[in-house]
Design brief:
single chain; 4 strands; ABC transporter involved in vitamin B12 uptake, BtuC; globular; mainly alpha
């Protein structure tokens, strides 16, 4: 095992990421075999199924990429799901009810997420509030603000054929009877940018160092409050971007939702190798973790089971991953 870990290619990609990739492939094979056996005349191996799973991974992926930065600092953000819905509701209301230009509404969508991220970051870093309490309060604020702004009414973004429906090209473009998953390309580009920020920039190094040993970083003269706040701002901005991919898939946004998105986004992040204690994070692992969750959801639905089974399986996987991470840390210590 150690020889495999020391292999140059394995070290470059990451051993945990390779294991997750194998798990994802095995899951796909398992669903391909079991679906026709459990549900007669049903097939999991199709391009339509793959695109359907990917559409769920787009917005969940951006949420997970964002919360990776926060967890890397040793914090947590439970507000990302409701913030995504709040951003989609406020910007969608301006678009459909007040006739604002789509480009302006897209900018508002991202700015709403950024504002919540800044709010969380300032309270955690400068006011010294626990991230758990702060994000829980922000979650309630986001749910309430979105509901009040739209008068508790759902908001429906334009369809593809309607004026302003070009935003749906962010998710997919139909050509020759097939749908090209442009959302996957944008998600991969987003993941690459996040990986560069986290691993190749001063900001990313400080974010990881804060998660490893905050006091040592502070005593070395680094403004830990600024860099910790930046992690929350990145998280909020990506939540605002996730809202665009959510409406690209679902069109209609209902007020007061988003709680379950928090858990799945954090699960994808933790599953990908980001340590809940901070200091260790993997953008590539997060991306694979999100794809596994999306594949689980599509596979369970293909077999005719309710979505609750996905929550059970995801919860068990997260428990195993966190247990393995803690055991590995204790062994190293």
């Amino acid at each position: 095992m150690e020889k495999i870990k020391q292999n140059a290619i394995v070290k470059k990609i990451g051993f945990n990421s390779l294991v997750l990739l194998c798990v994802m492939i095995l899951l796909y094979i398992m669903f391909a075999v079991l679906t026709p056996m459990i549900k007669t005349n049903a097939s999991f191996v199709s391009y339509a199924r793959l695109v359907s799973a990917l559409k769920y991974a787009y917005f969940l992926g951006f949420l997970s990429l964002g919360v990776t930065f926060v967890i890397a600092t040793g914090g947590i953000d439970f507000s990302i799901g409701p913030v995504m819905f709040c951003a989609a509701l406020i910007s969608g209301y301006q678009l459909t009810s007040r006739g604002w230009p789509l480009a302006v509404c897209i900018l508002i969508c991202i700015l709403v997420g950024t504002a919540f991220g800044l709010f969380n970051g300032v309270l955690v870093s400068y006011a010294g509030l626990p991230s758990f309490i702060t994000s829980m309060a922000s979650m309630m604020l986001a749910k309430g603000l979105g509901s009040v702004f739209t008068k508790t009414q759902p908001v429906s973004w334009p369809q593809s054929e309607e004026p302003g429906g070009w935003y749906r090209n962010l998710v997919g473009i139909k050509a020759g009877g097939m749908e090209i998953p442009t959302g996957l390309i944008l998600l991969i580009i987003g993941a690459i940018i996040c990986a560069i920020i986290l691993n190749k920039t001063m900001a990313g190094r400080y974010i990881l160092c804060i998660g490893s040993n905050r006091e040592a970083v502070r005593l070395s003269g680094v403004n830990t409050k600024k860099w910790e706040t930046l992690a929350y701002v990145i998280c909020g901005t990506l939540a605002g971007m996730a809202a665009l991919f959510y409406v690209g898939k679902n069109t209609t946004v209902l007020p007061g939702l988003g709680d379950t998105m928090n858990n799945e986004a954090i699960a994808g992040c933790v599953m990908g190798g980001t340590s809940m204690t901070g200091g260790v994070a993997s953008i590539g692992g997060t991306l694979i973790g999100v794809l596994i969750i999306a594949l689980l959801q599509e596979g369970i639905m293909a077999m005719g089971f309710q979505i609750h089974y996905q929550y059970i399986i995801t919860g068990l996987i997260v428990l195993v991953v966190v247990w393995a991470d803690l055991r590995s840390r204790r062994r190293r210590n």
